[in-house]
Amino acid sequence: MLKFLNKIIFDPNDFRSVIAACIAGNSQAQHILFKKYFGYAKSICLRYTYSPEEAEEVLNEGFFKVFNNLERYDPAQPFKAWLRTVMVNNAISYFRRNKKHYTARTAFDEIPEPGVADDVVSDMTAGEIMQLIHELKPIYKTVFLLYAVDGYCHKEIAAMLEINEATVRSQYARARAQLQETIAARYPDLAGQYAMLSL
């Protein structure tokens, strides 16, 4: 990257050059980076929100944080992994800020866990599971995504959501149980396969 007459010159095909130009505040480089990772980042935001409008808000705020903290990115690490962390953390911050709004949507903490085979969820495709995950109570959905999709441990989730670890474990179990119950209702053939195998 070179500076010529106060204008930053970078190679759009050289990722490190684009990153350096973004850090220097070059709007063209920022547009290139945004366009390249827009779809990936938006898919993360859509997972953790309940409407396209919410996802857009989380996405825009997330990219704002990306560009403001890009100097912290370690070029030796995959950029998508770093971007995912920023987007997930921003989605969680958004969830915490709007927790009261989400809590008002549903109130079924005391739902008993159904006795559907644990492996039912394991046999679903990612797309099918994601459709069902969006129907979960917001806190269950968030915990399930953090643990089962994004790979955070219960302790990390507890810290992120500012709740205790036992609550996280309970909410994950309930999320999984509700998914299994829904699958049993909507996909009886699939649930029946596991019932036969357990005999």
Automatic annotation (TrEMBL):
Domain of life: Bacteria
Sequence ranges assigned to domain RNA polymerase sigma-70 region in this UniProt record: 33-100
Family to which the UniProt record says this protein belongs: Belongs to the sigma-70 factor family. ECF subfamily.
Lineage start: Bacteria, Pseudomonadati, Bacteroidota, Cytophagia, Cytophagales
Keyword tRNA-binding included in the entry's annotation: no
Keyword Signal carried by entry: no
Record-linked InterPro entries: RNA_pol_sigma-70-like, RNA_pol_sigma-70_dom, RNA_pol_sigma70_r2, RNA_pol_sigma70_r4_t2, RNA_pol_sigma_r2, RNA_pol_sigma_r3/r4-like, WH-like_DNA-bd_sf
GO biological process, alphabetically ordered: DNA-templated transcription initiation
Domain RNA polymerase sigma factor 70 region 4 type: from-to ranges: 128-179
Protein name as annotated: RNA polymerase, sigma-24 subunit, ECF subfamily
Keywords, ordered alphabetically: Sigma factor, Transcription, Transcription regulation
GO terms for MF: DNA binding; sigma factor activity
